[in-house]
């Protein structure tokens, strides 16, 4: 039995363009983000996908809904386990503002950010549950940069020491005989 999982980061938002940490702040796609999601939807419309899951945050839900409209999929299933990392006090701030407020070592301070391991654990438990529940299905998951990246680093640590996930990028994983493999990483050829 095999599963194919497509991991998608949401389209761009105004806060992405401003360099602000979004975390769990509920920021919608901007015009560019809608165009990106539409381009990805056109790409995916030439493929077969069985089911779509999305984070509960608006930017992911909008991206998922645009994709759903170009596929033969009835609905998008929302799950808050695949929402973005909670960035605590840094949400809504730029790097410059963080340095001004907390100094250059702001990452070493306790500013209420969710632990990276816990984010990865959320992502992996969601993946494991969905592949066991939807065997032999092609599953799309619309989520966020940190959740996707941290999940990949924990799922395939030899391949992903670090990650960078572009807006509306597609990463494809396969799961066969209890083994995960990455077929495509951070692909944005549709843009």
Describe the structure.
With 191 residues, the protein is of the alpha/beta class. It has a single domain (2-187), classed as Rossmann fold (3-Layer(aba) Sandwich), CATH 3.40.50. It is built from six helices and six strands; from the N terminus they run E-H-H-E-H-E-H-H-E-H-E-E. The protein has a six-stranded mixed beta sheet. The longest helix is centred in the middle third of the chain and has 18 residues, at 116-133. It is globular. The mean pLDDT is 97. One of its GO terms (cellular component) is cytoplasm.
In terms of DSSP E residues, the strand content is 15-25%
The count of helical stretches stands at 6
Q: Specify the oligomeric state.
A: single chain
Uncertain regions: pLDDT < 50 for 5+ in a row?
A: none
Please supply descriptive tags for the structure shown above.
191 residues; alpha/beta; Rossmann fold; 6-stranded mixed β-sheet; 6 strands; 36% helix; globular; phosphatase activity; hydrolase; Histidine phosphatase family protein
Architecture blueprint of SSEs:
Blueprint: E1 2-9, H1 14-18, H2 31-44, E2 51-54, H3 58-69, E3 76-78, H4 95-102, H5 116-133, E4 138-143, H6 145-155, E5 170-176, E6 179-187
Parallel strand pairs: 1-4, 2-3, 2-4
Antiparallel strand pairs: 1-5, 5-6
Helix pairs in contact: 2-3, 5-6
Protein name: Histidine phosphatase family protein
Keywords: Hydrolase
GO molecular function: phosphatase activity
């Amino acid at each position: 039995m095999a599963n194919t999982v497509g991991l998608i980061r949401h389209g761009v938002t105004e806060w992405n363009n401003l360099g602000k940490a979004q975390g769990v702040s509920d920021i919608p796609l901007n015009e560019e983000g809608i165009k990106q999601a539409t381009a990805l939807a056109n790409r995916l419309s030439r493929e077969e996908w069985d089911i779509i899951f999305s984070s509960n945050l608006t930017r992911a839900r909008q991206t998922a809904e645009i994709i759903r409209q170009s596929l033969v999929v009835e609905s998008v299933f929302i799950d808050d386990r695949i929402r973005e990392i909670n960035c605590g006090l840094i949400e809504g701030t730029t790097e410059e503002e963080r340095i001004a407020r907390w100094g250059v070592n702001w990452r070493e301070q306790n500013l209420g950010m969710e632990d990276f391991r816990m984010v990865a654990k959320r992502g992996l438990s969601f993946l494991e549950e969905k592949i066991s529940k939807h065997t032999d299905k092609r599953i799309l998951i619309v989520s966020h940069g940190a959740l996707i990246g941290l999940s990949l680093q924990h799922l395939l640590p030899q391949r992903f020491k670090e990650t960078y996930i572009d807006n509306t990028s597609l990463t494809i994983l396969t799961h066969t005989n209890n083994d995960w493999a990455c077929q495509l990483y951070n692909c944005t050829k549709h843009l």
